[in-house]
Every structure is written in structure tokens, then in C-alpha cells.
Amino acid sequence: MVDSPTEERSIHETDVIGTMNVLVGCAAPSSPVRRLVVKSSAVVYGASPSDPSFFSEDMTNWDKPASGITRDLLEMEQLVSEFALRNEHCGVTVLRLGLRVSEDTTLARYLSLPIVPTFAGFDPRLQLLHEDDAAEAVVRSVIGARPGVFNVAGDGVILLSQAIGIMGGRPAPVLPPYGRWLSRLGLKALAGVEMPAHLADILSFGVVMDCTRLVSELGWRPAYSTRQTMDALASGKNVDLVEPPSPPQEYELQVFLQQRRRRRQQLPAGRN
User: Fold this and answer.
1) Closest by CA position to 197, among listed 215, 217, 183
2) Could you report the per-residue pLDDT of 29-70, keeping only the tens digit for each?
3) In sequence order, which residues have a C-beta less than 8 Å from that of residue 3 and are 6 or more positions away?
4) Which residues of 216-241 are buried (b: 16+ CB within 10 A; e: fewer)?
5) Closest C-alpha among 226, 177, 181, 196 to residue 109
6) Cα gap 54→63, rounded to integer Å
7) What is the CATH T-level fold of the domain 8-244, as seen in this structure?
8) DSSP helix, strand, coil percent of the chain (3-state; round to 5)
9) Does 247 sit behind a cis peptide bond, omega within 30 degrees of 0 on the bond before it?
């Protein structure tokens, strides 16, 4: 329940207490369970200005200041790790799924605003995962029987400003970069978007995972890149998709060239 409108207490009961109850059932002497796949999230790493460029699976940090949901995920994964050590007959796979932007997520609603309030001075990298790939990762983990912890996200990253542009919006750097709890209240009042604390951290500092282990050990990579995941969201809106630029940092140039080409196509013959 990383993206949920419910209170943090309810989320804790689901993510931690609920996981504990499942593990107790799986550990029972009469339990037939031999494979356990646990959905975690990139949010387990938290987001701060001192973060590395990429998080590998062994880089979780209990000492790092974090949101309530990040702490819940750390606690949940600790319970799962202890279960795996005590129950060697059961193969355990933990999937740290990247951020998703299906239409019912907070991040998608935020990016869909016509004017998107952003944190002043910050343009973080975003790494996304398509819902189809999230489901595929779970299926492959069950069938493939590969125990361990795996980061799961689409190839590549995009900047927050690029994601806003893909959705046809305009960034407005009006949120103060610190005291983000106050910014979250302002965002709810101005735009009707209730942003959880962990997402506010990510929209300030970003979080990007290293998914090398997913490819090398599971032999699979998500079908949708981060950019294609954003395009899939934008295709449900009345906006023009921007062709993927090459090199990727030339996004603004690609927007300009594509718009100019479209304008020329709309001109009467002989005037372009």
C-alpha cells in the first residue's frame, strides 16, 4: 500500500502486521507454501540529497531519516528476511517495484495537472515501472523460482520537468524546498492532490535503482522503458506524444523539432 489515500496507521497495519500474519501462516508445520513472492517498493530506499546515483539491492539504510511508509517497508522486509532464514524449505523473492503512474496513482494525478507545482530549485530524476511489467515480474518470480531481492524498473530515467512536458503541463516551481509538510498542505489546497511524505521526498531528490541483478539472475527486463511508461500514461490524455529524443538529454530540442515539423505539415502546399 505505497500509494494509498488511507492513513499511515492503516497502511502500517496492512504492510507490516498483515505481512507478519501471512508469514506466520507460511511457517506453520502444515503449510504447503514453498514459494513466496513479496511486493516491496523503491520507496524502501527513501530519498535525500545525500543519496547515491543508483541504489543496488544491498543499500537500504535503517539510520537514514525516512517517511513512515519507508520505515514500514524496511520493517516488512526485515520480517521477510528473518522468515527466509528460518524456513529454508520456502524460496522467498522480494521485488522492489519502481514508481508506477497508472491513472489512479497520486503521481499520475499530480503529473496530469495543467500547472504542476514543483519544489523550487529541484528537477529530480524519475524511474518508472509500467503496470504490465509489474505483473510480469511477479509471474516470472513465481515460475522462475529465483530467491533474493530484486530491483524492478524500466530502463532509463526522465526528469520531472520532462514528465510534466510529456503530459502537456507546465511546471511551476512555487513550493518551498524545505518544510515539505507545509508544501503538501498547500498542494492539497490549491490542486486537490494529497501527496504523501515519501512522494514529496522523491519529487525533491529522486530515487533511481540499479536493476542489473534483475537482468543477470532472472534473465528478464521490463518491456516498457521509463519513457514509454510515461508515453502510455500520456496516450490517455489529449496531448501529443513527443518522440523519444536521441541523445536523451536533448528532450527540449526534440520537442521543438517535432512541433516545427507538425506546423509545416499543417501549412497549405507551397508555403512550407
Assistant:
1) 183
2) 899 999 999 999 999 999 999 999 999 999 988 777 677 899
3) 100, 105, 106, 107, 196, 199
4) eebebebebbbbbbbbbbbeeeeeee
5) 196
6) 18
7) Rossmann fold (3.40.50)
8) 45, 15, 40
9) yes
